[in-house]
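dumping this here before i forget
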Amino acid sequence: MNTDPLVAAIREARHRISAEFNHDPRRLVAYYRERERRLKAEGKHRFVSGPLRAEESVALHDKPPEK
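structure:
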């Protein structure tokens, strides 16, 4: 099976991050939650708090990135 190079790169990155925490799901989730908290605090990124309606999803993808 041919794997898309982008998918392979993402999987490799996820594996490396998981390995930093000995593949312990609790430590890994704690890491991602803390990372999310810090990114939200910076205010540079947008986070979805719930499911989007179809028109909201399309609208997000049609807009150029905010600076």
